[in-house]
């Protein structure tokens, strides 16, 4: 009877379904001398668990940590950021001076030509938009023929 109970408990143990009391019973069974021959293979495992439970860690862990001196890294990063900002502002101020002259012409004939080019471009784009409107008007006409109101 006890042998059948131990086999059932071992199955439950490997499936993770045993309680603490059942595991204690298994440890006490395998620590005794009268273990069934076909269960001898588990004796070493349960004996190891019993011995491992008694072990204590005796070595002292050092608590000091080394602080790295990385203040120079923050100084270098600040210098890089400052250099990047100065470069950005120098480049943008030079471009702002050249962009102020855009759109102004000293020669009235050149100004007229550029204005005509701009208006021709605008006209071409408006005409493309008008072609789309014509398709919509054709669609409305066809729809009104099919669906008479």
Would you write up a description of this structure?
The chain is mostly helical and 149 residues long. The chain folds into three domains: 2-54, no CATH class; 72-102; 105-149. Helices cover 71% and strands 0% of the residues. It is built from five helices and no strands. Helix 1 packs across helix 2 (20-31). The longest helix has 39 residues, at 108-146. It starts with a helix and ends with a helix. The model has no long low-confidence stretch (mean pLDDT 80).
Q: What would the principal axes of the Cα set say about the shape?
A: elongated
Low-confidence stretches: none
- Order of helical and strand elements: HHHHH
Sheet of most strands:
none
User: Mean pLDDT, nearest integer?
Assistant: 80
Helical content (DSSP H or I, runs of 4+): over 70%
Percent of residues in beta strands: under 5%
Query: What's the gyration radius in Å?
Result: 45 Å
Number of distinct helices: 5
Number of strands: 0
The first-to-last residue Cα distance is 95 Å
Number of domains: 3
